[in-house]
Amino acid sequence: MKPSTAARLVDPRTINADLHCHSRMSDGTLAPAAVVERAAAHGVALLALTDHDNLDGIAPAAARAAELGLSFVAGVEVSASWGNETIHVVGLRVDPNDAALCAGLARTRHGRDARAVAMGKSLEAAGIEGAYEGALRYAGNPALVARTHFARFLVERRICRDTAEVFSRFLVEGRPGFVPHRWATLAEAIDWIVGAGGVAVLAHPGRYRLNATARHALLVEFKAAGGTGIEVVCGSHTPAQYGEYAAIAAEFGLLASRGSDFHGPGESRVELGRLPPLPALVVPVWHDWRIAA
Ligand code: AMP
Ligand code: MN
Ligand code: MN
Ligand code: MN
After folding, report:
1. Rounded to the nearest whole angstrom, what is the distance from the C-alpha of residue 187 to the centroid of ligand 1?
2. Per-10-residue mean pLDDT for the chain, 293 residues long?
3. CA-based Rg of the chain, rounded to a whole angstrom?
4. Cα–ligand 1 centroid distance for 154 (angstroms)
5. Closest ligand 1 atom number to CA of residue 116
6. Which H or E element spans position 36?
């Protein structure tokens, strides 16, 4: 991210930024360096790798980005609980060596493993054997087993046609394989990110099952806790939601982010760098970052 003095600075409005994606260090399918290569090949000029609850991919991704001359920022997607809802908070430009952030993420990962064991037992009770071991085979990082890895195993076993079908029949509330879990609190997740010098961004707000009153309360609490950004154009939003969340970003004075949430070729709805630009009325979260072309 350090431009030489000769480097041309880029207009933040026109830059192809992708600030949300995953590698094998969480539930993506590509190695961190391969994610960077693919992003560059698809025209991404500013990339953040945001694996779930860990920073293991940051060093290899940053190294590959430096070789390719791609602007790269360290990111993470922290799992948090707010009431009964799981909320994801993306941290951008974090110091990957920050002690409190690393300790908080380690604690979150520990809870994940116990949950994965319980998910395996729940699926076994529904007649599906060996799911924990099966999911572990798909996990590129054994410390980070996610529902996505279980989903891949159920597809492999031909219990479902694809991972989308898995998430409608299994692993969600009221279905086999679902295990309720308490993640970090919203305040903890934001504190870890901000304490590590980062910007806390509310991930894919359109995905949470909240009515208008609850969503308003979440946004108020998110801001009060130190959150400063919100995903407006992201892989899980519809075009109508780009406008809806742009208006919310403006209303709450939040900076807007853009990210594909890419998990791998053939599995993600949206390719790296292929989303539309942010609506004109919002301020990009990267508006004051020095980005060289
Ligand atoms: P976990 O953090 O273990 O609860 O897993 C959450 C991950 O599951 C998300 O980051 C997504 O990658 C994936 N996921 C959740 N819901 C769906 C869905 N409806 N369809 C496909 N993938 C999903
Ligand atoms: Mn994921
Ligand atoms: Mn997420
Ligand atoms: Mn994600």
Report:
1. 22
2. 60 91 98 98 98 98 98 98 97 98 97 96 98 98 97 98 96 97 98 98 98 98 98 98 98 98 92 97 95 74
3. 18
4. 14
5. 3
6. helix 32-41
